[in-house]
Design goal:
Blueprint: H1 2-14, H2 19-36, H3 43-56, H4 59-75, E1 93-94, H5 102-114, H6 118-130, H7 142-147, E2 149-154, E3 157-162, H8 165-178, H9 196-210, H10 219-234, H11 237-244, H12 249-255, E4 258-259, H13 260-269
Parallel strand pairs: 1-4
Antiparallel strand pairs: 2-3
Helix pairs in contact: 1-2, 2-4, 5-6, 5-9, 6-8, 6-10, 10-11, 11-12
Length: about 280
């Protein structure tokens, strides 16, 4: 099975799947193989695996794991063993325990500055003021700061994102102090772009000092905050989808879901209950 796994990973690489996706698929397929044990895959066992996942994971996580397994089964020329993903009705609002608001974001930036971590403070603002993915940080370069725009090429897609003027000035000041004249701005001491795990770890370390719940602090939530703020101003979901790099507008809908508290205020304001 290991040889088939390696071949599948090579196939995914040729399909231009990201390294993060390939690693996640490998973990999910290994988990499936451990469930099978010495037994060969069968429709019955795959259905049992799906049921076991439902007892342990949230529906979205179940579907992500099933996507990896179904892809692997198709690669093995066993499409008849594939199972259907769970049907999930999107919630019209986000749980407050996971939504990062403006005040909490500002507190994270302030805390990073007080800790003397200028790079982290600037990184948080770069993601939140542009809506980029953490994997797109290497495209924020000295040249982009000078031009006021960054060209992002990832997963076979190309888009240009604009950088706020105030952010450009802050980036250029940072570059001047660091002696960086070209290439990616957010790099290690050896000059390599910061990776997702490093950014995640540094953000989590801010939580307790900033007084922000750890469940709210991760790179993608900064992207969500950008989307929410932009949509509140622009109200054009198609425009927002283009900025975020979404090919499916339904994905963008997830980003602009309001909090439970906001949703409650909206329905209370309707005044449709008659005294």
């Amino acid at each position: 099975m290991q040889g088939k796994m390696d071949a599948y990973m090579q196939f995914l690489e040729q399909e231009e799947r990201s390294l993060a996706t390939r690693k996640q698929y490998r973990r999910d397929i290994l988990h499936f193989c451990a469930f099978l044990g010495e037994e060969p895959p069968s429709k019955e066992r795959v259905i049992q695996y799906k049921q076991a996942l439902q007892q342990r994971y949230q529906p979205s996580s179940v579907n992500a794991k099933l996507a990896a397994v179904n892809g692997f089964l198709s690669f093995l020329e066993l499409p008849q063993l594939r199972v259907k993903q769970l049907k999930i009705q999107r919630s019209p609002f986000l749980p407050g325990s996971k939504e990062l608001n403006r005040a909490e974001y500002a507190q994270l930036v302030k805390t990073a500055r007080l800790a003397g971590d200028e790079r982290l403070a600037l990184l948080l603002q770069t993601i939140c003021s542009t809506g980029i993915r953490v994997s797109e940080l290497p495209f924020i370069t000295a040249e982009a700061a000078s031009a006021g725009a960054a060209c992002i090429h990832l997963k076979g897609k190309h888009r240009t994102i604009l950088l706020p003027e105030q952010l450009c000035r802050a980036l250029q000041d940072y570059l001047a102090r660091r002696g960086i004249t070209s290439g990616p701005i957010f790099v290690t001491r050896s000059g390599r772009p910061l990776d997702r795990s490093y950014v995640w770890k540094r953000m989590k370390q801010l939580c307790s000092r900033a007084g922000v719940a750890e469940s709210k602090v991760f790179p993608h939530n900064l992207r969500h905050l950008f989307a929410s703020c932009f949509y509140s101003s622009d109200r054009d979901i198609a425009h927002l989808a283009d900025i975020l790099g979404h090919s499916n507008i339904n994905t963008t809908r997830i980003y602009i879901a309001t909090s439970g508290g906001e949703h409650r205020r909206q329905i209370e304001a309707l005044n449709l209950v008659q005294p």
